[in-house]
Amino acid sequence: MIEGIWTLIGDDLPALQIAVPLLAATLCILVRRPMAAWSVAMVVAWSSFANAGVLLHRVLTTGTISYAEGGWPVPWGIELRIDLLNALVLLVVTGICAIVLLAAPRSIKAEIPRDKQYLFYATYLLCMTGLAGMTITGDAFNIFVFLEISSLSSYALISQGSTRRALTSAIQYLVMGTIGGTFILLGIGMLYMVTGTLNIVDLADQLALVGPNRTVLVAAACIAVGVGIKLAVFPLHIWLPNAYTYAPAIVTAFIAATSTKVAYYVLIRFAYSIFRINLTFDGTQPSAILMMLGIAAMFLGSLVAIFQDDIKRMLAYSSVAQIGYMVLGLSFANEYGLTGGLVHVFNHAVMKCGLFLVLACVLLRMRSTRLSAFEGLGRRMPLTFAAFVLGGLSLVGVPLTVGFVSKWYLVLGALEAGLWPVAVLILMSSILALVYIWRVVEVGYFKAPPEGADEITEAPVSMLLPTWILIGSTLVFGVWTSLSAGVASAAARMLIGGGS
Amino acid sequence: MTAATAVGLAVAWPLFAVVLIIAFQRWPNLRETGTLLTGGSLFAIVAGVILPEVQAGGRPRFDVWEVLPGLDLAFEVEPLGMLFGLVASGLWIVTTFYSIGYMRGHHEKNQTRFYICFAIAISGALGVAFAANVFTLFVFYELITLSTYPLVTHAGTEKARNAGRMYLGILMGTSIAFLLFALVWTWLATGTTDFRPGGILAGKVEGPQLMILLALYAFGTGKAALMPFHRWLPAAMVAPTPVSALLHAVAVVKAGVFTILKVVVYVFGIDLLAATDASRWLTWVAAFTIIAASCVALGKDNLKARLAYSTISQLSYIVLGAALATTAGVIGGGMHIVMHAVGKITLFFCAGAIMVGAHKTEVSELDGLGRRMPFTFGAFLLGSLSVIGLPPMGGSWSKWFLMLGAAEAGQWVMMVVLMASSLLSIGYLMPVVVRGFFRSAPVDDGHGDHAGSGIHEAPLLCVLPPVATALGGIVLFFYAEDIWQLLMGMVP
Q1: Cβ contacts (< 8 Å) between A407 and chain B: which residues?
Q2: Residue A460 located in a structural domain
């Protein structure tokens, strides 16, 4: 029977990646009971994850997958196109969705009223639909459509936070995000005007014929700004710290590890596959701008992180800095640099999601994520805190953790581009990461908990498990790199080679 | 067991101690027996299986895993690493005995954590010693830093926390900013980070870049305590004395100078450095550190602080040996790793014994104490002689070779520096002995129970180890040729 199902859906796996979560979201609303909705979401998320694994395997063995939606041939119909680049991103997105869901029931019980929880799961699946769609679609306009699906649902997710600040943060994100979406739409519209096509591969070919003209340049600028807002590139990051800080802990873990990563993917797709970098990103100027922004993000993000009292906010600023690394990798425009940026998508998703899940555990037990909540935590919640230390070390880039792999390729990229001062800056900023992480570690291990503090028990297994899956992964993928760095460098080679 | 398997086993072996320590944490005697058994068997593996192979000219190799293309975790034992591995594993046993006496005599808390971190640090030291390439060395270098951090901050006080901050800040900061940079650069220039006889950089990196790369390695190895990155070492003296003894006279700091020596011999190649003169500036930095740290030591009244600055000075002997880029220089440097380790660990053991037995920490308080603690002060005398470099102690040989190396390189100034440093070390070490033996004790030292004559030593386990290592210093004087024979294998 399994054989039968396989022959039935085997070729439609790309479409299922979008259709199943979309339908399941409505199912969540129908079933209403929180645990039932959670079960639906779990089944869908884990099967999507498995599906993404199968797709990546197919791409690795048989090459790029092109799926014509509704049987309409490309370029007239809408295409789903999965190559090395987005197969890896898809794996990250679905994997994070699935693992974070494990921790969801216990965590949101404390933050979201019971009668709204089914809506949470429905929105969560919608967001996942949007992110997966953005990742695998082969159509520029559909990128915008799925971007809006994911954005609208993430505004809703963020507004579920337990404080009133969550609402203003969601509004702030909504305003910024809408501006970003509008810019993207403008850019895509201009490209359509010039080329008369929306299919990404076709767009690239047509643009090569058209050559660089002012409309294309403006389109590129619009798209860069629009995606830059979603990606939270410095100085377009101002929505991010608030959104991450006031969203429910689980939502922060989910969004921090997926949303900006997909936006980064879109930026690369546009820069390397559509504009083919040498068209409009030629000379040094656009990449020089990105480099400046990346470096500024690295330092300002980390510096601001050092002075945060709320650790969730601290990690949010740390994300701004880490996004700076990715943008920097992109700006080197060589194979090592791009590999570094891409592998950091994978690595940063794993470690930052793990760290935000640690904060979810802390929030659950201490009802706060302020620095004072960490006093004596090394003894009170040893497993949770050990996870924080390991995740933090990975963020610093200690060897045999994933952070080291990213840093290795980024520094190589900088040196390959002949930019040794930038290599120095990358390493310097890692030391800043050590400062903000160790500030928390010291409080956790050396400060005694305040007199008369409540007895605190270790976080529940259902939350520790996903946390440690991710933190464990930072070590596993720090040593076994053929999945992350292997695929990333193959994808980078493909992009630099000018493929699509 | 083949020597190659033994190499992999030796690095992992101390981790078995961790398992035993955790299993027996409720029964301190069993727990320490576990550490001792692991230490003893480790030394048996290193000295019994790996050493003969290396002496016979073999280079046992153990590959673990390829992390990134061209970036392997692998071990390969050559003479220099062999020597460092022997020192670290051998002195671990002695130090464990000493720790039992000290930690219990001093009623320290969290002893289980202490022994666990200690064992991990030893594993790190062996990993550094046996690393087959710069990457592996870097990995274990960081492991040492992280595993010794809880040891430095063991007391948990404000002072310990600040010391820990400086410790981690300098060691990790320099390693990330400079050493990692040097690692990436080396890989990009040569496509490998392997240690190979004669070096890998010849023809790949040239001119002033060679000097910059050397600077990145030398200053990136913060553990070598080259000025101006030396402040962490005196700060780390807040740790319990066994930690200061083994880690901050042997495993941690020696991992630092070992790294520099190994990089100079096997990455740069002394011929390349000698031909290009790229390491001349480093001889001056080392010379400055030697003299400046000795002068600071003269002014320190706290005994452990004085010993710490003495260590900084002595470490730069080894850096100097490497920077001279002559055969005698690197052999002298390699030999000094052993000789200084044995001498300095004796001195730290004695300092700890004085702390446990008489509750004294300052040099000015030691008047007349030698008559009450003759064995401790006797051992201190022998240890001092070794550090100064006088016969019949092993330290005289390493200094001899270093002098020879300076002469070979035609750097007469460095010979003067070495001699001046010997004089300075007499100046800061001998007062301790002189006060102890020849000054009379103050009439009322505030501790009624300690007053009176007669021998009143620290617990036996605090006294025997320094006596043993002091005598070891004499033995090394007579067996220096074996070390020389071994080290000759590293220069083609």
Answers
A1: 180
A2: yes
B65, B168, B180 member nearest A427 (Cβ) = B180
User: Which chain B residues contact residue A434 at CB under 8 A?
Assistant: 168-169, 172-173, 176
B106, pLDDT greater than 80: no
- Region of residue A247 (phi > 0: left; psi between -120 and 50: alpha; otherwise: beta): beta
**Residue B43: closest CA among B89, B85, B97:** B89
Q: What are the angstrom distances between the C-alpha of B93 and each of A68, A301, B87, B99? A: 70, 47, 10, 10
| B chain contacts of residue A386, beta-carbon cutoff 8 Å | none
Which residues constitute the domain of residue A487? 283-500
> Could you tell me if B188 lies within 8 Å of chain A, comparing CB atoms?
yes
* Model pTM score: 0.91
Q: Torsion angle, CA of A126/A128/A131/A135, rounded to 10 degrees?
A: -120
Partners of residue B172 in chain A, C-beta under 8 Å: 396, 431, 434
- In A, which residues are within 8 Å of B138 by CB distance? 399
- Structure confidence by residue, pLDDT tens digits, A166-177: 899 999 999 999
**Tokens 């010794």 map to which residue?**
B148
Calculate mean pLDDT across residues B199-210: 85
Q: What pLDDT band is residue A283 in, cutting at 50, 70 and 90?
A: low
Residue A140 scores a pLDDT above 60: yes
On chain A, the residues whose CB falls within 8 A of the CB of B177 are 424, 427-428, 431
CA–CA min distance B119, chain A (Å): 19
SS3 B393: coil
Task: Tell me whether residues B65 and A398 touch, CB distance under 8 A.
Answer: no
CA distance A344 to chain B (A): 15
Number of CB pairs, chain A paired with chain B, less than 8 A apart: 65
What total of structural domains would you count in chain A? 1
Match 């100097």 to its residue by tokens.
Answer: B320
Is A415 in contact with B184 (Cβ distance < 8 A)? yes
Whether the ipTM is more than 0.95: the answer is: no
Query: What would the pLDDT profile of B313-326 be if each residue is shown by its tens digit?
Result: 999 999 999 999 88
Q: A56 in a domain, yes or no?
A: no
Measure in Å the smallest separation between the Cα of A372 and chain B Cα atoms: 17
Q: Vertex B12, ends B8 and B133: CA angle to 5°?
A: 50
Q: A302-335 pLDDT, tens per residue?
A: 999 999 999 999 999 999 999 999 999 988 888 8
Please write the tens of the pLDDT for every residue from B221-271. 999 888 889 888 888 888 888 888 877 778 899 999 999 999 999 999 888
User: What's the one-letter identity of residue B407?
Assistant: A
CA B269, B258, A415, A486 dihedral sign is positive
A54 within a domain of the structure (yes/no): no
What is residue B448's predicted lDDT score, i.e. its pLDDT? 47
Q: What percent of chain A has pLDDT over 90?
A: 57
List the single residue in B135, B146, B176 with the smallest CB-CB distance to A431. Answer: B176
Give the whole-angstrom CA distance, residue A245 versus residue A225.
24
